[in-house]
Amino acid sequence: MTSTTSTIDPREAAHFGGMAAEWWDPKGSSAMLHRLNPVRLGYLRGRIDAHWGGDPASLKPLAGRRALDVGCGAGLLAEPLARLGAAVTGVDAAPENIAAAREHAAGQGLAIDYRAGGIEQVAGERFDLVTALEVIEHVTDPAGFVRGLAACLAPGGLMILSTPNRTALSRLALIAIGEGLAGIPRGTHDWDKFLTPPELTKLVTAAGLAVQDTTGIALSPTRGFTLSDDLAMDYLLTAVRG
To answer: Taking the model in full, what pTM does it have?
Structure first.
């Protein structure tokens, strides 16, 4: 498999495309992502500042840089990246999501290059920041997907991924409770496709990148989602070219 071969699962694309109309509703089918987003953005900002030696007080730490968000949905991450100064390209397998993303960005006055399809949509292009958050567990070929992401990473660039860990806790929190009581649409997760940190690290290393950091996302009864040393439920991984 080459880095330009599609890793899209049509069933997954259809599932998430069916959620497009509610993507920006914090009480809709993407409510969990809305609650996760501040924690994910805080992590990204910290890694961005650390990698490029930026000023934490700067409002535009990504000014002059290109960012790629793969599996962008309707733009929950792409829009903040644009506000941080990046020239953003967002790619998603569901055309319905891209339509919703374009409409929302236009309403916010943001110029984001949204493209429907898979990683092959940006073949041959290079980006300073590459993100794919809660995406790899939905593709047909995780190794090929990571190779495709790595191929898009510019020299000196930063890649950040997130995914649920394959543990008893993630099965309970994300499927039994999340899809049963917390409003996540049923069928969103397949526990067997979750990746453990060693498995994802192996894929990233095989793609020629070096893992720089792995941080967990935990759920606190009082504070909600938080960054944590506990990787059991969900985690973020940062990599650079080795």
So the answer is: 0.91
> Residue 125 has what DSSP assignment?
-
Phi first, then psi, for residue 223 (nearest 5°) are -110, -5
pLDDT tens digits, one per residue of 157-177: 999 999 999 999 888 877 767
* pLDDT band of 3, cuts 50, 70, 90: very low
Name the residue among 28, 8, 9, 10 with its Cα closest to residue 19. Answer: 28
Rg (Cα) of the chain, in Å, rounded?
16
The answer for residues whose C-beta is within 8 angstroms of residue 90's C-beta and 6 or more apart is: 68, 69, 72, 75, 78, 98, 101, 112, 113, 114, 115
Q: At what angle do helices 10-17 and 95-108 cross, to 10 degrees?
A: 40
Burial grade of 139 (CB within 10 A; 0-12, 13-18, 19 or more) = buried
Instruction: Give the whole-angstrom CA distance, residue 129 versus residue 62.
Output: 9
